[in-house]
Amino acid sequence: MGGGTIVASAKKEFAGHPKGLYVLFFAEMWERFSYYGMRALLIFYLTQHWLFNDEKASVIYGAYTALVYIAPVLGGYLADKYLGQRKAVLFGAVLLTCGHFLMAFEGDPTAGQANPMINVFWAALAFIIVGSGFLKANISVIVGQLYPRTDVRRDGAYTIFYMGINVGAAVGTIIAGYLGQTYGWAYGFGAAGIGMLLGLVVFVIFKPLLEGKGESSNPEALTRPYMGIKFEWFLYLVGLVAVAVTWWLVQNQAIVGSILGVFGAILVSYVIWQAIKIGGNDRDRIFAAIFLIIGSILFWALFEQAGSSLNLFTDRYVDRQGVEASLFQSINPIYIILLAPLFAGLWTWLGRRGLEPSAPAKFGLGLIQLGLGFLVLVWGAGAVGMENATPVLFIFLIYLLHTTGELCLSPVGLSAMNRLAPKHMASLIMGTWFFASATGNFVAGLIAAATGSEEASGEGAAKEVVLSVYDKIGWVSVAVGVGVIVVSPLIRRLMHLDTLRDDEELAGMSELGEPQAAGTNLTGETKA
Description:
By secondary structure, the protein is mostly helical. It is about 70% helix and about 0% strand.
């Protein structure tokens, strides 16, 4: 109802932002409803329905989430080169809708991995992975296209967009998690599919409010025949082939780790080579972006314990007062809904006074808060004794610190990637950002597997082992965060914020705009 009121108003903008931002807000909200609703159930689905042990389930979970973040490299490249961001998002939404509905088919609940429907499950994951690849990086790029590069509203816009992500995540987690653990897996996953379908409908109906942003830079090429069919349809067939390849990869998790290593080296080398070819300030900005990308890997490797080891810890060792464990996954997005407007206002307020921390300094602050979250949980569990259930208060505290850390890093990172990249490399750099998330998610699976070592307990992760791992990674995160803050002035100088200028097409003068860059508040950057 709120979205309908916004987009139906006669004014060109709402609350100081173009209405196209809210179209993207609501489309992404429903996509995140489906993704996080499924994510809240996935580790329990793997251990309780398919009967994988903790260690194997964590590796599968890590490989799946890693592939979700690898896929945007393909989707971003095809959007930059041929499709344009809007068509890539539309195709991704169709694949995601199919994948989430396939998750509702579970088969015999007593058969475990002998259940033939497990192949449908792998196919569902493959559709979701490739669909996310076409949607995730590109919808973020369209947000950047709505604003000039030096527009003071850009960080606020990305934070509002990020809040939309978490509205969907919170509602999806609560609804899908409750239905799945109370009435059956099919009900939870089916609800996620309905949410994705709604996201697709919103994006199609309100296309005019995007003001021509995200269209192909070479629309004539899409209509040319290629191998007997229109080239645009050939690109969609490439996407379906990617689904088939992913179906195999998600079942062979070790291969995913090898791909991350090899492909990551190739991707970073290519980006560096492009930066050297470009030279000048753009080269330095790309180097600054790479530093931020590398720093984000550690953040996501630790943060993404939420859906695997922390989810299982909450289920087994926390006094939940009868609340289903999957519902605690909604705490993080609810915190973001409450805190994102405060952070958006804080950055703007500090920026206008020349006091806003630089993007690298914000990254360091995010890592410190992430580490403190783990340390608070370890302290809380130790304070009541290993033999007693951990008070639920400490689950709320770890998610609070992880959320404030996330708000210092993730929306700022999205904004910085788009701003620092030359306009012809916007989706590639954004895809590289998501590739770093992929690496972090795969490492997260390995960390979670360590907490679920069968040597610790015949039934899975022993409480002491989990807390020992959390203690180590907590201190590592704090130490790295301090180091990032120390070097942040050097990285800020590489960003050359004082030389950024708005190109004519960035202000919306061209209907077929190239992907724009977005970033942290120019006037608000300091030498912190």
